[in-house]
Structure to design on (190 residues):
């Protein structure tokens, strides 16, 4: 009986050890969803509210910055002061051009959270709220591009959202698996 119990414990231990998840030390970003709505900000200005959700994974868990990270590579004058960068592009005649008057201010600092446990990777859902005055947002179709830097200054790949119809007033929701224009794209291909 002791031998059987020992084998069961050994198998459970081996199974538990094999469950360690490993990811690249280079961070990765994935677009999950965006919610866009016309609304009014706290000052009464009409704005295009955009709630963007991303999934970020860093294999060694060194993504994010503390409030005190403001010197050296993380000083306010440095490229690395912010660690999340978002670009908004307009689709025009099948190509994309960056909307610099919007994208120029879409840089953020993701806070640091120390990983706990034996797995040192960090897997986080990051939500960003963006408000852009309606006067600056007069485009039919947009898309987002995202990338992050970790604390070792490793840059992730660039993640891209699907094409999003943005001109219409009202509410739009898009997830990472959709295309609002599939029907039109299928007609063009046929």
């Amino acid at each position: 009986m002791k031998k059987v119990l020992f084998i069961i414990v050994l198998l459970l231990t081996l199974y538990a050890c094999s469950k360690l998840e490993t990811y690249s030390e280079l961070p990765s970003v994935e677009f999950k969803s965006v919610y866009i709505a016309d609304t009014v900000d706290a000052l009464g200005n009409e704005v295009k509210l955009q709630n963007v959700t991303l999934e970020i994974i860093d294999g060694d868990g060194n993504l994010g910055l503390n409030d005190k990270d403001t010197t050296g590579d993380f000083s306010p004058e440095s490229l690395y002061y912010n660690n999340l960068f978002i670009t908004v592009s307009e689709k025009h005649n099948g190509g994309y051009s960056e909307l610099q008057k919007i994208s120029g201010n879409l840089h953020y600092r993701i806070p640091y959270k120390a990983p706990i446990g034996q797995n040192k990777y960090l897997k986080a859902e990051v939500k960003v709220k963006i408000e852009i005055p309606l006067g600056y947002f007069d485009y039919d179709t947009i898309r987002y591009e995202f990338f992050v830097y970790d604390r070792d200054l490793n840059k992730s790949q660039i993640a891209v959202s699907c094409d999003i119809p943005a001109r219409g007033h009202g509410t739009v929701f898009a997830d990472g698996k959709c295309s609002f224009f599939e029907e039109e794209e299928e007609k063009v291909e046929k």
About this structure: The CA atoms of residues 33 and 175 lie 4 Å apart. The beta strands are 28-40, 46-58, 84-92, 95-98, 107-108, 122-133, 141-148, 159-160, 164-165, 171-175.
